[in-house]
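so my prof wants the structure for this chain in the tokens format not the other one, which i didnt know existed until like an hour ago. anyway here's the sequence
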Amino acid sequence: MGSSKIFECQKCGVCCKGYGGIFVTDQEVRATAKFLNITQDEFIDRYCEESGGRTMLRTGENGYCIVWDELCTIHPVKPSLCNTWPYLKSVLADKNNLTVIQNACPGVSKDVMYEEFAAAVREFYSQPPKGFL
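here's what i got, hopefully its the right format
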């Protein structure tokens, strides 16, 4: 089963719902502010909050990430943590996490076996990270 058969994003926003702790780096703040054509300070004031001394995206009143509006409004520059979904390292630590991911996300194949998914996670992390604008 190829990685496209393991996961095909349904653009449903399930992964964007809830208080998820999407921390953003300084580089991600710069790229997102540029993408939104606002200053970095405006981006932080409108879209972020501090947690544990780190900057993270807020959760909106609707329970979704503040940048979710039927689709991710910053998709081309979304934070690296968002880019990892559903290839989470936690699957390598506990294979039961695959079942949690499969039950949460309609885009993850219910037929993929743990070994194949774990190999896809390892492959995902062996590739260079995506760049920003």
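also thought this was worth mentioning. The chain has a mean pLDDT of 91.
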